[in-house]
Each structure stands twice: as C-alpha cells, then as structure tokens.
Amino acid sequence: MVIIRRRSTTAAIGMVLFTGLVSPDRAGSVAGTYPVVWAQGPYPYQVMIDRGDGNGPVVLTQGRGAVLSPDGQQVTVIRGQDLWVARVDGSEEHLALSQQAYNEYIGSPTDNSLLMGEWAPDGATILCSYCSGLSVCDLMQVGPDGSGLRRLAGIGLDRSAWPSAFSQDAQRLLLGSNSDNSPTLYVLNLADLSAVTLTQMAETGSWSPDGSMVAFAWSSGLRGYGLEVVGVDGANRRDVAAAVRAATGRRFEPTGVVTWSADGREIAVQDHSDGLYYAMQLDGSGLRPVAELFEPYACSPPTGVRSTSWAEAKGSAR
Fold it and tell me: How many domains does the chain have?
C-alpha cells in the first residue's frame, strides 16, 4: 500500500507533437530523427506515427495508449486489456502481456482494466497498471518480449492510477489519475513505495533532465489554463504561465504534455489559443514558437517528446 502525503493542489489533456526534430540523446531512429506516436479517436483508435522521414503521419496499427520506447524503435499499444509491442516500421507486432497472463500470475480471475504502459529508461522493461473497479491497482513489470513478468507493487491511491513517466535514474515514477474528473499527479518512490501528491490539477507530467523538477500543464473550466514547474517534493513551485502572460501580454493557454530541452533550461508546450508549440525559459521569458501542431484531435492519454534540442527544433518547425 502506498503512503500518500498530500502536499499541494493543481491537467493536461490533449496532444502536441514534434516532427522532424533532431535529438542527439536518442540513437537509432529513422533518418536521424525521433519518431512521434499517438492514438487518434474516435473508437476504434488508430495509432498514428510520424517517423520524421518527410512522409508525415501514417497509421501504424490500432489501439490506445501508444508510447514510444526510449530508443525510438518500438511502440507499446493497448488493445482491450492486453499490452502489445510493435516496431516503428510496423513489423514484429506481438503480445507482450495479456489479461489472461496477468490473472494467471496473481492467481485469480479478474476483470481489471489495463490503463497505461510506460517504458523504463533503459528500454529493457515496461511498467503497466491493472486496476480494479475499487481503484486498487497492480503495478506490473514485463519485458517487451513478454518475459520476466512480475508484480512490482500493489498501490492504493483511492483512485485508479497509471504510470506517466519514469525519472531518468528509474528510481521514481510519475503516476497519473483522473477519477471522477479529478486529475491528480503523484511522485512514487519505487524504493519504499511512498508517494507525494504534486498536484490535483494535472494527470501527466514531465521530468527535468536532472530529475529534480516536474513540469505540467493543466486546464480548468473555472481557472482557465496553467503551466507550472515544481520540485519533486512539492516545493519551489513556479507559475510559468502567469509569468509568460505578464511578460508578453498575450493570451496563453498551455495544454498537453510539457517537454524539456536537453539542458533543462527551457520547457515547451502547445498554446491552445493558436495551436503552435512554444518554448520558453523557466521564468517565462524568451517565448518563441518551435513547432506546429499537426494532429488536430485531442488524444488520451497524451504522449509527447520527452527531450528535445531546441536549436534544432526551431530550424525544423513547420
């Protein structure tokens, strides 16, 4: 059981995508670029991919919850309550974890729902969450080839939760939740399974490269749109959106997944008001467009590029 220490309150839903970005910390991707994947509705969801080869987005397969591996070569996809893995060229699609295999592992039949999968930073394992109707979740770990299945932890957060992002040292995990339209983002320490509530406004977040901070965007019918950066302990919160508005006087509506520059000095996010993707410094200064949104439909759960060289991004915007 996870111990929850509630620290603060403050979601990002939607989908923003880079295309054609050179990313020096990602090796082996197509034509020197880092592919981007997302699931596009309505049901049945199509898993789309832009491989950065100039051909634009194409259908890869069917499913939801598409997440790219750290090396940009494989994609996880959820169909029903099963986890599938395929290569970015569409080949070698295979079942990595079925609900039947999960039930056999825990030793009892269930109708638990598979919510999301997330790759470990080394790409050797995938973490996913099977949750019951009582919002008690089993955090399961499995290799992309289906080997090494084990239950990492049973987590009780009073709501269903799913992996959102690993820290680069693989010691902590962002967990997202959106039960009863109440988005929440937790930091789970995998060593002792303690957790801190970072915000009750967002369900997805992105780690800074050094693992000391988390950035997230949120939207609320009453409060509008927000963009914040906060320390992993919930301290040192920065209202980046307010700083951008104060500095520019523009209508700024951050939405979707926030991404970090490789050096951790800037973040970028889509501006809902005009559809462009903007980079900015953590104090809200230096706002500039770096890419265009090319997928107009909202996708859930959102997926984004996790690390980007902004100098290259600026040159490749389209």
Answer: 1
Which residue has 């109707």 as its token pair? 133
Residue 137 and residue 129 in contact, taking contact as beta carbons nearer than 8 Å: yes
pTM score above 0.70: no
Cβ-count burial of 71 within 10 angstroms (0-12 exposed, 13-18 middle, 19+ buried)?
middle
CB 186 within 8 A of CB 168: no
The CATH number covering residue 101 comes to 2.120.10.30
Within 13 Å of residue 25, how many CA atoms lie on the same side as its CB? 15
Structural domain range at position 101: 3-316
| Interval 217-248: pLDDT, tens | 999 888 899 999 999 888 899 999 999 999 99
